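[Meeting: bench + compute handoff]

Bench side (C.D.) handed over the final construct sequence. Compute side (W.E.) agreed to return the predicted structure before the next meeting so the bench team could plan truncations. Sequence as handed over:
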Amino acid sequence: MGVSRRVDCPRGVPPWPDVLSRLSAEGLSVEMRMIDGQLAFPDEQPPEHWQELRVSLGGWMVTVRRDGSAVELISWADPPAEMQRAVSVLERALTG
């Protein structure tokens, strides 16, 4: 069972390098796993108009699915408190 959360990005979905910078400032490591359904290198950057990313966020797998000026964050587990915190940090990084 997974948990899904919709995040509205009032200024649009920020560029992925900006998101990475914000996550790094919060002490979270992020590794890319998939970009738009294709396997990716851990340090690979998605194209500007990506639709779906799978990332390892602090050791947990999270899907980030773009939906216009919003994203859906999906964690594929019953998230422990540490994962919930990591996803909250990702949400703040996306909303700037």
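W.E. noted at the follow-up: The longest helix spans residues 81-95. C.D. will use this when planning the next construct.
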